[in-house]
C-alpha cells in the first residue's frame, strides 16, 4: 500500500526517473487574479513553495505595471525575498527595460514570453512575431553575457483563439528561433488548453527532427478541456523531464480570455508519485499551501487533489 495521502506506485516504461517542476504559481498564477494580494502574502506563498521542496519557482514579472498590476511590486518582492542556495528564482522580462530592472534587482535567471502565432504576438506584445524576436535578441544576449540562464516561453503552440489550429511547423520554427537567440530552456505552452496527446507527441517529434534537444524543453499545459495530465504523460513518454505547473491550479492568461487555469501542481504530483517518478516536492505540504492560498483569494482551489486531500 502507498503511504498516507499518496497513490500506489505502478511504474510505466520509458519515463524519466525524475521530473523537474517549474512552479509558476507566484507569477503566471497570480497575474490573472483580479484581487491584488499584499506583498507579505506573496512572500509567504513563495516561502511555503520552497519549504515544500520546490527548487524552481518563477516569482514575478517585470512587465510594465499597467499591463499586469498584480505584479507591480516586483522590485519590493525581490528585495525582501529570502533566496535560498540551490533554488532557482526566474523572473519574466518583456524587453530591454525589463531586463535592466531585473538586473538592478539582482536576479540570477530570466524568462521571455514569445508567441507561435502572429495574432497573439500583436495582442500580447504589440508587435509582429519577427519584431518580437528582434526585441528579445538584445534581452537574451544581455542576460547571457552576464551568465544568466534564459527561459524562453512559447505560447499558443497548439491552438490560438483568433487563428484556430496552429500548424506545428510554425511552432518548430519559432522554437528554433528562440534557441538561436540563446535561450537555455524552452517552455512549450498550450495557452488555451486545446492540445491532445497525439498533437503533443507529434510536436515533440518534429522538434527532435529539427535538432532540438528535449533535455532543455519544458511543457506548459492549461486544463481548459481536461487534457493537461494526459498531455503531460505523453510529453514524458517522448523524453521531456521538465513540467510547468501552478500550485492549486492558479492562473490563466490576461491576454487570452479562453485560457483557464494552469495544470495544478498537486494533480501533477499525484500522477508522478503513482508512476514512481521523483520530484523532491512534498505533496502534503503543497496541499496545505494551496488550501492556505485559496483562503487568501476567498475561493476554493480548482485542483482535484487539493480538494480530495484537504477534505480528509
Brief description of this entry?
This protein is of the alpha/beta class and 312 residues long.
Helical residue percent band: 40-55%
Mean pLDDT rating: 93
Question: How many helices does DSSP assign?
Answer: 12
| Order of adjacent strands in the largest pleated sheet | 1-10-9-8-5-4-3-2
Residue fraction in strands: 5-15%
Topology:
Blueprint lengths: L19 E4 L1 H5 L9 H13 L8 E2 L12 H7 L10 E2 L3 H9 L5 E6 L2 H8 L3 H17 L4 E6 L3 E2 L3 E2 L2 H14 L3 E6 L6 H13 L7 E5 L6 H11 L3 E4 L19 H10 L8 H15 L6 H7 L2
Parallel strand pairs: 1-10, 2-3, 3-4, 4-5, 5-8, 8-9, 9-10
Antiparallel strand pairs: 6-7
Helix pairs in contact: 2-11, 7-8, 8-9, 11-12
